[in-house]
Amino acid sequence: MPSLSEAASKIPSATIPSGAHSYRREPAAHEASLTNTIPQFRSTPIPWWLWWNILSFDAPVVACVWALLLLRSNGRAAPAAEILALAVTVWVIYTADRLLDGFATGGTSLLQARHSFAAKHRFVFGSLIFVAGTALARLSAQSLEGATVRAGLTLGAIVVLYLVTIHAGPARFSSLLPKEIAVGMIFAAGTSVPLWLRPVGFSFRSLAVSAMFGVLCSLNCLSIECWERARHDRARHQPPTLWIAWANSHLTHIALTLMIAAFISTCLSTRRDPVALPLLAISLGAFLILLLNQQRKSLSPEALRVFADAALVLPALLALALLHA
């Protein structure tokens, strides 16, 4: 689908009579200022398969599926109220982060489709965040145990601190703790909270699985950042950090190392070991991201992002199916 500028370039210029006086009108200073400060948003149609990412449904789906896998593989029940609270919390966090990205960026070259859509409909998303936050507070007060609420508030405080630091803190913070690593580890910790709150749910083995899942989530974020940066115009405006530049040339090695480590850990576990299936899902997820990285030049950035999220969901769904087989 050609952009508006490309389409406009193909429209023939109007013919001006030879006797007419013509001149090229330069934009006034205030008009140029408005052009530079008002964000421009994509007007091309959004394909149906991209909507779950545009509406920030991808992260809640990943969190809920993995929370169910961690609970079921350990023989624990999965209360609907806790899973629902996890889904709403993740959606609010991710949507708020995209809104902040949209406010901080003033041009289309620095915005992806998901950020552009959130910024364009910021009033709607802001209202939905308020409604979801109110519903979450009521759900927490009526249906969640005190320990669950306290754990959620603690993790929520960490997330708020992270958002403030990323969006309003010094730029050098990102070099000390890359955003991709921070997001992956926080996401994995939040997904593991429903398991850790259960009796004997928190152990060294469960912590190790959560850490490896955090590496997988960080790999997901890191891969998407590298893929999109290589294919979009913002690479010309924002040179990559040393971390991103290094990771971009080592994505294959990172994914391969995680895949082998998780697979070996799976082989060392017994069939009834509660960590066996989650480890197998982590290994498969790393393998799928490895394949996507090999095909990065033949797929669009939007397709790569959707497939990268699917690489986290599908292995967990397969592990759940094997668990109930």
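^ that was protein a. below is b, sequence first then the tokens
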Amino acid sequence: MPINVLFAAKPERWAQYQKPLHDAFEKQGLDVDLRQDHDPAATDYVIYAPNSALQNFSAYTRTKAVLSLWAGVETIVGNETLTQPLCRMVDPSLTQGMVEWVTGHVLRHHLGMDAHIAATPGTWNPKAPPVAWTQKITILGLGELGTACARALSHIGFDMHGWSRRPKSIEHVTCHSGDGGLTHALQGACGGVLLLPDTKATETTLNARTLSLLSRGAFVLNPGRGPLIDDPALLDALDTGQVGHATLDVFRIEPLPADDPYWHHPNVTVTPHIASETRAEWASTAIAQNVFRGEQGLPFLYLVDRKLGY
């Protein structure tokens, strides 16, 4: 009997994913009936985008797992009808994209590239940047993405620090955890990168108090989630010079409204939620691997902890 897999996402996603998913299932040796319209009572797995029409999972009594196409699960983890195991998306291309975006913007600020790009022709200001190992950079959030970014920046030579809810150990990265650890992680940092999940516990992690811990003139990068930042506090810190520049990829409201002060602040760079994205080929491989594990009775990868919210 084939494995019944429902693809529940917006219609345009079907064209992107249909062939890569078929190829990935075949590579895993799985006999899969992949459709957009399976009978809920006969569905074994749901490939899911939280913005799809499917919001009530009560009828999916046979479903072994819901496999999200998104890395973030904050919009679905509280769905009371979703009692099936929920797996978030982790794939190499998403991780690589985030490493590239974070590394690029950290180096941009570290090297002072903006001053040269925007310099008046004829201006000669031979001020060299400091070497990387004199610069403390802190990443808040040491999951798959945060860990990968911390490792990449440590290889360049930065004095890397990271903070997470629970203790972590990463080679060449000073890891902090808990409330007290957050203070130590941010104290004196000349750059902060936000890669925490969006939960009640992480909302406004970057606020007036925590921003004041940074080295004066530090930069802030947020490719994680909009609610991680207390926006008025960040704008105040930018106005006073406590924060020298903020490069923001995610916001509480998206698209970012045209009248939002972030658009017009001289020390803010807005990027339109493009730090990284899920790519069909690699995401399909990750999904097929989890379906294979489910059929073999093995634990699912990247299973969401409902209590923690990620």
